[in-house]
Specification:
By secondary structure, this protein is mainly α. It has 3 domains: 181 residues, no CATH class; 68 residues, no CATH class; 112 residues, no CATH class. The protein contains 11 helices and 8 strands. A 3-stranded antiparallel β-sheet has the order 1-2-3. Strand 1 and strand 2 form a beta hairpin. Helix 1 packs antiparallel against helix 2. The radius of gyration is 29 Å and the shape is elongated. The two termini are 48 Å apart.
């Protein structure tokens, strides 16, 4: 899991600096106006209101954000529209899955931070200008009064511009991410069917469980960065805990499916050499599509790696075809399991034909079934013939 606190440190420091500058400027303004003989209440009121707006807006910047929400047929990120079922059901179904990558989350948070830091810079320059006016020896109230309108307008412009930029950024980056994810899929049609089935699960979970959790007064919310919302029970309630448990089991299942889809939709033939781990004493190993390519320790694994990666190595091409076919069959099996599970959940809930224990165990049991199926398909394919061909090409191999 990426540590988003690290990329927030610089912004947190800038926010604190700006907060201190607002306080100092407010105190300076009060001190200067207090020494004046003419009525300055309106000037102080106008500036104070603006200082309050600044404090409120920059206080929001402390949040890491990335709050992903599913409204009625609409998806929002930090309260900004991403897509809707009416606009594009393709984008809608693939939204959560596409934005689930750590690379996108880091990209989004970094971009949002950049906009916030730029706005903080504008605010600080505005505070500098006000401080400069307030520290003049021949300060004129008319000039300060005129500048108060400029100050207020500029501050409002800076924050509005920031909101507009973030809104546009949410639209462009999210839609680009979804589009790129869809384009990279090896099995788009079957994956889309699975996404539609997961959407049906979401509707049922929201209606039967999450809506009850949301309406409770004794839960607090925790949002994953560009991910699902978690609910923490504040007061003991067996009924509420029952709904939270089902909801969390559902989230775990969805993440499991996303992980499997990531694996199945990748191009086949990925070969990497995991280096020797001195601390644990674990020897280096070759992984072919995340499956150990087991080879005798006496053979040079780096040389084996080169052979497997050689574009002229024909057996690898055959392996890729076989692995691609296996992934397709696994995806079809996954699609069938999820479709059957959706029908079962919907039917038994409609008939109220499930006990509480059966409902709680529904998604854990489904997860076990899916994992068992996936591991069966993830067994080594064509490895023996590949090894035989590879070893014939190594210097250490003797007939």
């Amino acid at each position: 899991m990426y540590n988003f606190e690290n990329i927030m440190c610089n912004k947190f420091e800038e926010i604190k600096k700006t907060e201190c500058r607002v306080k100092k400027t407010r105190d300076l303004l009060y001190s200067v106006l207090k020494s004046q003989t003419q009525n300055t209440k309106q000037i102080f009121f106008d500036f104070s209101q603006c200082f309050t707006i600044i404090e409120q807006e920059i206080n929001k910047m402390y949040n890491i954000n990335g709050k992903l929400e599913f409204k009625h047929k609409e998806i929002l990120l930090d309260d900004k529209h991403v897509t809707s079922l009416l606009y594009s059901n393709k984008f809608y179904y693939f939204c959560e899955y596409s934005l689930n990558s750590s690379q996108f989350k880091e990209l989004y948070i970094n971009k949002k931070n950049d906009y916030d830091l730029y706005t903080l810079g504008d605010i600080n320059r505005e505070l500098d200008s006000l401080t400069h006016i307030l520290t003049q020896s021949n300060l004129q109230m008319d000039k300060l009064r005129s500048y108060s309108f400029v100050f207020v307008e500029n501050v409002q412009t800076y924050f509005q511009r920031n909101k507009t930029k973030i809104k546009d950024m949410v639209q462009t980056t999210c839609q680009s991410q979804i589009d790129n994810t869809i384009r990279r899929l090896m099995f788009f049609s079957d994956t889309r069917v699975i996404m539609k089935q997961l959407y049906k699960f979401r509707i049922m979970i929201n209606s039967l469980h999450e809506s009850i959790i949301k309406n409770s007064f004794c839960v607090k919310y925790e949002h994953e960065v560009v991910g699902p919302t978690h609910y923490i029970q504040m007061l003991r309630s067996d009924n509420l805990q029952y709904h939270i448990t089902i909801y969390e089991n559902y989230l775990h299942f969805v993440k499991q499916v996303y992980s499997i889809l990531d694996y199945l939709n990748k191009p086949t033939g990925e070969i990497i050499l995991v280096p020797h781990d001195v601390s644990s004493g674990v020897d280096s190993e070759l992984l072919l599509d995340s499956v150990v390519f087991d080879i005798d320790k006496s053979y040079n694994k780096e040389e084996v790696l080169k052979i497997l990666k050689d574009s002229d190595f024909e057996k690898m091409g055959l392996y890729k075809q076989m692995k691609h076919y296996s992934n397709k069959q696994c995806l079809l099996r996954l699609k069938m399991i999820i479709s059957e599970a959706v029908c079962e959940y919907e039917e038994k809930f409609t008939l109220q034909d499930l006990t509480k224990e059966e409902i709680i165990n529904f998604f854990p049991n489904l997860s076990k079934k899916v994992e068992k199926m996936f591991q069966e398909f993830k067994q080594p394919i064509y490895h023996d013939l590949l090894k035989e061909e590879v070893l014939m090409k190594t210097k250490e191999y003797y007939i």
